Amino acid sequence: MPRFELGARVLVRSTIFNRHVGDEGSISKVIPHKSGKGTLDKYEVEFADGDKSLFWDIQLGRPAKVAPASATQNIATTIT
Length: 80
Description:
Helix content: 10-25%
Number of domains: 1
Structural class: alpha+beta
Largest sheet: 5 strands, antiparallel
């Protein structure tokens, strides 16, 4: 079973150099490997500028979740 589903947000890791290293995009196509090994799956990722590129599973990760501004402000207020 593929690790990422269509539409999932992903981050391009620096495992193998690519011009999109560090960029976030959305999965636009899932290409499962015939062996069934998830680490060999390929994914097409679409970026905000409309560019699309293929990546191996190992090249992708989940982007860090960013706390909403209101949560950050509440923490800062509590600390001071």
